[in-house]
Specification:
Elements (H helix, E strand, L loop, with lengths): L3 H12 L4 H7 L2 H41 L18 H4 L6 H7 L2 H9 L3 H11 L4 H4 L4 H20 L3
């Protein structure tokens, strides 16, 4: 059984970032494991304490900085942290159904409308409705992708018409 002094030394070494393997060479392996497991168990509470300490330290620094600016006024410091949202508008963008578009428009007007869309949007259509071959479509321009979508729609419709 390790003495309190040894346990504190091991705990301090682990908190300083020393590896368990190196501590196993210096101390009894069971003692190192016991201290490590205790630290791991208390890690959540320690993280919360560290977070609170960091917030208090930041608040002190901000107060000192504001005191340097003006000694006469008082400030209330509020810190809020929010997770940044990336392109939420693009995530909810509906992808048009090329088959409905083909029914509504002629082949040429469908191709013209698809040519106006950007490359990523056309690739999303292909991925959703057709087999996407990245090697084949990598070199295609927007016009070629639009023609490709039209030809794939016609292919599927022709296959379907032979079963009528």
């Amino acid at each position: 059984m390790g003495s309190k002094g040894v346990l504190k030394e091991i705990e301090k070494a682990l908190l300083d970032g020393e590896s368990r393997d190196s501590l196993n060479k210096k101390y009894n392996k069971a003692t190192v494991t016991r201290v490590y497991n205790k630290l791991k168990k208390d890690d959540d509470s320690m993280c919360n304490e560290l977070k609170e300490d960091n917030e208090k330290e930041l608040e002190k620094l901000l107060r000192k900085a504001l005191d340097l600016i003006s000694n006469e006024e008082k400030y209330e410091i509020t810190i809020s942290v929010k997770k940044k949202d990336n392109n939420i508008s693009n995530m909810h963008e509906d992808i048009i159904n090329p088959f409905k578009l083909y029914d509504e428009l002629s082949k040429d007007s469908m191709a013209n409308e698809l040519k106006e869309k950007d490359r990523d949007y056309l690739i999303k259509i292909i991925k959703k409705y057709f087999n996407y071959n990245s090697k084949l479509l990598k070199e295609y321009t927007n016009e070629q992708l639009a023609v490709y979508i039209c030809s794939e729609v016609e292919k599927v419709l022709n296959i379907g018409s032979c079963f009528k």
